[in-house]
UniProtKB/TrEMBL annotation:
SUPFAM superfamilies: FAD/NAD(P)-binding domain. InterPro entries: FAD-bind_Monooxygenase_sf, FAD/NAD-bd_sf, Flavin_mOase-like. Belongs to the FAD-binding monooxygenase family. This is Monooxygenase. It comes from Rhodococcus rhodnii LMG 5362. Keywords: FAD, Flavoprotein, Monooxygenase, Oxidoreductase. The keyword Oxidoreductase applies. It holds the Pfam family FMO-like. One of its GO terms (molecular function) is NADP binding.
Amino acid sequence: MTENTVLPGSVDTLVVGAGFGGLGMASRLLAADPDADVLVVDKADGVGGTWRANTYPGCACDVPTSLYSYSFAPHPGWSHTFARQPEILDYLERFATTAGLRDRIVGGCEVLGAAWDSVAGRWQVTTSLGDVSARFLVAATGALSAPSVPDLPGTADFPGVSFHSATWRHDHDLTGKRVAVIGTGASAVQFVPEIAERAAHVTVFQRTPAWVIPRPDRAFSATEKALYRRVPLLHRMVRGTVYTFREFLGGLMAHATALLPVVEKVSKAHLRRQVRDPELRRRLTPDFRIGCKRILLSNDWWRTLDRPDVTLVDERASALTASGVVDATGTEHAVDTIVWATGFTPTEPPIAHALRGESGSTLAEQWAGSPAAYKGTTVHGFPNLFLLFGPNTNLGHGSIVYMLESQIAYAVNAVTTLGDGEYFDVTRDAEAGYNDAIQRSLRTTVWNAGGCSSWYVDATGRNSVQWPTFTFVFRRALRRFDRDAYAIRRVGERVPETVVPEAPAG
């Protein structure tokens, strides 16, 4: 990462975020044009994105490592079939170096605002380190960058230590502490078994039980890693096999309801093996179809909840007091530490409040709580802007890296094919037609029809998060920049009056 904290006055392409999306975008731009004028900024002091921020005990990927790397930068040295956080961060740090990105990255640089200048045909960006003008702006801030912490009554009265799992307090030793964990999502199932080993008592607050299946994790042998290094084709074949299996299984689970009871039986058998108390098993059994919420992978989550020093409260936390946490029934639970495992705000990304388009409205104002984009990547009224991990690009079965690579290829194609002085704006009709088709496809999926309330569905009732079908369909749709879906204008050309569109219908 560059030591220079003085931003250039202008740059051709400004990438916001130095995680998988941002690093991949910068590297592919340079691969297409070694002289590309690209700069990456990140509010953190280093690369890695969510894999730098999330350092809680037990933090790991729940996608096989065979898929969790760039296809153009394979890594044969993973230690396990499901990589741990330090390994993933190390992979991204080494990639930033080997891809020659270090002198193009400025850390400790937060984007405070960005406005499209129609006269200049550029984004005017304000950051914590100064202003910069960019022809193209790439928002690669991810969907899991803003921790969500409920503002409960009495928060100011709680005298103990509290923090979100994404901002783990490693300076706070949990040994002998009475710990409340609020939330039972993907992070909680990883760190609760870890902290239960040293805390005096852990009280877990569960609003809704989750479906959990075993995580088929194992260590790679030295022989396997050596083979992958010496025979890259074998490594690619393994990656292809894992991709094909998960693509097939994920597609069936999303759309073929006949398969879901089979997977539910696997989960229930897993529960019976780990929890002896039938009443506790009942409280841990979801009443919605598996897959409606994110399926969790763990070999010790349910076993941990069966420990005598762990208490499950299947009520939401409703208030904090000077002594602890009050649940929805009014029962107070005495604790001295609170860990919020309450997830993130994927439908309200902070970057959306910072970006102002042609109309002067922010992206958040235009979305009105219901994000939508053309091919998950571009938005009408926000010229020369690319969103990575944008609306309806999340997956329930595969690797987001695959989706990011598809978006990156699309964006690079746009950047390298637009003529001098040209800029694009996706048409209102193209964006609306695309999103209508996405929503129709989602109606029959388990995410929409599985009988649950999840973070996939936004405040308006639309599923603005999930991709509805196979990932290769997405890749095919983004194989090239389709100019016919855009108004291509030249700098200085009169811009038609922009009217902020209504939030998309469900």
